[in-house]
Amino acid sequence: MLPVECEFESEVLSAVLQSRWPDRAAAQLRAHAETCAICSDVAAVAGVIDNARERTRGSATVPDSGRVWWLAQVRARREAARSAARPITATQLIAGAAAVGFSGACFGATSRWFQEALAGFSFSAAFAEHTVLAIGMAAVILVVPAAAWLALRRD
Amino acid sequence: MFREVTFTDVNRAAVDAQADLVMDEDTFRAFYERNARGVWAYLARVAGDRQTADDLLQETFYRFLRAAAEHDSEDHRRNSLYRIATNLARDARRRILTRPQAAVAGHDIETIANLTGTAETGADLDRAMARLKPRERAMLWLAYAEGASHREIAAILGLRPASLKLLLFRARRRLAVLLGRSEVRDVTR
């Protein structure tokens, strides 16, 4: 199996990063690196990247820290406002559904026509006659709140 | 006596609670000053161009703030920052790849050039790095520019520490060969 590590790798790396490589590094280490593919690669690559490090950092155009902080605050507040509005939308939806239900109940309790119509009505007979319709309505009652929840969640 | 609470009050309180960032301003600014240039250089190297690094730098710090994660040390905090930068650079690259006209290899070589100025060695490195995969660039930069340990690199890049040694070895070999500092010896991809 091809070796991927060398016990002297970290020493070579330290010498490179401390600008001791190759002139001021130990002669034994230099001799080892000449025969070790891993250490010679470490010396070559680490030296070039370390040299590029300061140049790359120096060419960076970074915005002022105060500006980044301020923009982060503004954005955080905007996102939080959007997220906080979600429960209120849900509350309004539930309140609307409750109002419709309450109106229906009032109508049922006060309408003589509705009471008379209900007197001769048999739920079991109606269910037996319109089973498919009843199951469909039950499904709608279950599906609509789930769909509303999913829509609000995506929002 | 009960105070009247309106929807607006509730909303404002919720906004205040959710908008709280994980750091105070002074801590953030000090952290930013210490790391912004390093993160920019990393993004420029991994993404392959300055414009992407400019675009992603603020997003990296914003996501770091919003993540509200607890860190037990400065190193841990810095690793989180680089992990976020890595993910953003990866997403940006995916977006470039899905663009119909993206000529990715050419794009990288053109735009990654001049990251290190006009010095001959710098230009050589730019060209050689452009020929590596983004993950290889990230590994090498973290290891030799940022001085990250194998464990830290694995955590930042989402790799297993055991596989990192081999991947880093291969990336280093490829770069050494591309730089002409090493003869071509079994550079396994």
Question: How do the helices and strands line up, and which of them pair or pack?
Answer:
The complex is a heterodimer of chains A (155) and B (189).
Chain A: H1 9-17, H2 27-35, H3 37-58, H4 65-110, H5 112-119, H6 123-129, H7 131-154
Chain B: H1 7-19, H2 25-47, H3 50-67, H4 74-98, H5 104-112, H6 120-130, H7 134-144, H8 150-157, H9 161-178
Q: Which consecutive residue ranges of chain B, at least 5 long each, have pLDDT under 50?
A: 103-110, 184-189
Indicate the radius of gyration of chain A in whole angstroms. 38 Å
Order of helices and strands of chain B: HHHHHHHHH
Structural class of chain A: mainly alpha
Number of helices of chain A: 7
Largest sheet of chain A: none
Within the CATH hierarchy, at the fold level, what is the topology of chain B?
Butyryl-CoA Dehydrogenase, subunit A, domain 3
Domain count of chain B: the total is: 1
User: Would you tell me the overall average pLDDT of chain B?
Assistant: 80
**What is the CATH top level name of chain B?**
Mainly Alpha
Share in β-strands of chain A:
under 5%
Mean pLDDT level of chain A: 85
- Low-pLDDT runs of 5+ residues of chain A are none
What's the multimeric state?
heterodimer
Order of helices and strands of chain A: HHHHHHH
Would you count the extended β strands of chain A for me?
Answer: 0
